[in-house]
Amino acid sequence: MNIAIPNSQRSSVGHTACPHDCPSTCALEVDISAEGRIGRVRGAADNSYTAGVICAKVARYAERLYHPDRLLKPLRRKGAKGAGAWQEIGWDDALDEIAEAFVKAEATHGTEAVWPYFYAGTMGWVQRDSIERLRHAKRYSGFFGSICTNLAWTGLVMATGALRGPDPREIAKSDCVVIWGTNAVATQVNVMTHAVRARKERGARIVVIDIYDNPTMKQADMGLIVRPGTDAALACAVMHIAFRDGYADRAYMEKYADDPAGLEEHLKSRTPEWAAAVTGLSIEEIEAFARLVGTTKRSYFRLGYGFTRQRNGAVAMHAAASVPTVLGSWQHEGGGAFHSNNDIFGLSKAELLGTAMVDPDIRMLDQSQVGRILTGDAEALRHRGPVTAMLIQNTNPVNVAPEQRLVKQGFLRDDLFVAVHEHFMTETAELADIVIPATMFVEHDDIYRGGGQSHILLGPKIVEPPPTVRTNLFVIEELAKRLGVADRPGFGKSERQAIDVILATGGFEGFDDLKDRKWIDRQPPFEEAHFLNGFGFADGRFRFRPDWVGTPAPNKPPKSVGLLGPYGDLPEFPDQVDLIEVADADHPYRLATSPARNFLNSTFAETPTSRQKEGRPEVMLNPDDASREDIADGDLVRLGNMRGSIRLHARVTDSVRRGVLVAEGLWPNKAHVDGEGINVLTGADAPAPHGGAAFHDNKVWLRKDAG
């Protein structure tokens, strides 16, 4: 006998998008039980980029959503900052106290004393970016978001004039896939999906260029391990060989590039011998790579973020993007270079951000220099007054920001009020005055776009949140009411109404239509994506000779900030420039703080499975270096430089070159032996020309800890 199961008792599948700070922006299918709890999370098989594959940490998202340590009640600090004593309060009281603190800060030091601070804990536009509308309405200090994309996007746009490129799904149609400066197995699994398909179906070769033998390198047919900060030297030598051996497509360059003759002359001294001495590669490795891409028309260069997180990162990106231009690879399906599709989506966030209310006289403060700002550095403060009140959403600066000791010192100031809206008691929340609990992505509505692919995706609420947590939008709207700006443009809308407005700017129907469709593919036509109609400059030509000062770029600082770093030292043509922290006698090692497979920035570091799989904070060092320093595998060691020193355990491995150290993370500070994390050692000085954070560019000393 068949017994009908009432609809209320049936499980279902919810369709949404991954919200996290990753270019893949995977389309997701989520099992939902009859009780309204999520279960298995998997990639959407019918999304042509996600193709049914997601990373393991997101697949086990239920572990995070139902974590016993999740924040569920608003809290007020009791006692000293960081002491860990809290009192539960109501939502109205929490919001009232935040608003009162902002009003007090403004009355004492002016509106710029308040600094709303956020980043990419969610990539959903409504929940991430609505804080900007409050900032502009109240004329609070501006937020110069420098920590992630500045170096990479600047380098690419200096070359191509646009943030777009060949369809990432064309990787599967390539005969050679070059994965340059991104550990895709750990951070962009879909890149590997399409690369492996190309190998299986076409016999494509996979080349991986990185600074250590990471999981992506282990998938490579050709692995090139370069010294940190030397990628431009490799690119220059490859182009030198292309001109020397006839691989250069002179007809293509004559039509599409600005000065191929000048480039060829410039590269005459950038020989494989020269590059081998700089990069640590052998001459044979450089020659073999150049020959492979030079003789393979369908060579697809997938350029990541990792190799740009050096002080010369913009130069490295420009040089790498120049290689397929010399080879003419852009002309072919499965060829060319891709980094980001950020320009293709055709949507405006102007109302969401409140751009009509922007006051150009309000100072812009650099996100990466939060430690300097909160400890009173006059230059970082733009020679204006102090920051005395903050609202923090979607980020954990006490853990993730450079110059960690300064950051923590600043947050411990007694005269600084901080409210943190979070999922867990992060190390930033631990130093706050008010902590309020936030919804997670399956518990609210939002809209996403995948910079590493081509889809606009909807992320609708698919389960009910705990009754005591609130969305980011709710917090912004309630503060706007208390601060007297709720009548300004853009306020007073629900998530769905805000999404309707955003979609309308692109000529699309609203939330309900996108919910039915799940996503919209915005990949440009082949000719546009491959720049066959011209690159993104007025003359349509690729720039071998970039205008580092004058070229418009998505992360260019406002005039009030100006150009940053030693921009006068940037090269005329692609070249190796040692603006990096070069190892010296006192700091003989170069340290990179590369991402771990089971964490995403500081997210997932709270989940038991991720922590168990990662083990403990360690630094990887070569056996020859270990022998010289009398260090054995598992020993406690101390790393240090001019910013401070920390202790963690050694992992002796052939995966890294001599003179190079890699600490995969990002582990919480408290997971380290002395409660201080790896960002004690990273610097916040702004790289040229538009700033950024050079997380993988640190000279350090290393010694066995005496105990």
Automatic annotation (TrEMBL):
Domain of life: Bacteria
Molecular-function annotations in GO: iron-sulfur cluster binding; metal ion binding; molybdopterin cofactor binding; oxidoreductase activity
Cofactor(s) the protein needs: Mo-bis(molybdopterin guanine dinucleotide)
PROSITE patterns given in the database record: 4FE4S_MOW_BIS_MGD, MOLYBDOPTERIN_PROK_3
Spans annotated as Disordered: 606-627
Keyword terms: Iron, Iron-sulfur, Metal-binding, Molybdenum, Oxidoreductase
Limits of the 4Fe-4S Mo/W bis-MGD-type domain: 11-69
Family statement drawn from the similarity comment of this UniProt entry: Belongs to the prokaryotic molybdopterin-containing oxidoreductase family.
Name of the molecule in the record: Molybdopterin oxidoreductase family protein
Provenance organism: Ferirhizobium litorale
UniProt lineage: Bacteria, Pseudomonadati, Pseudomonadota, Alphaproteobacteria, Hyphomicrobiales
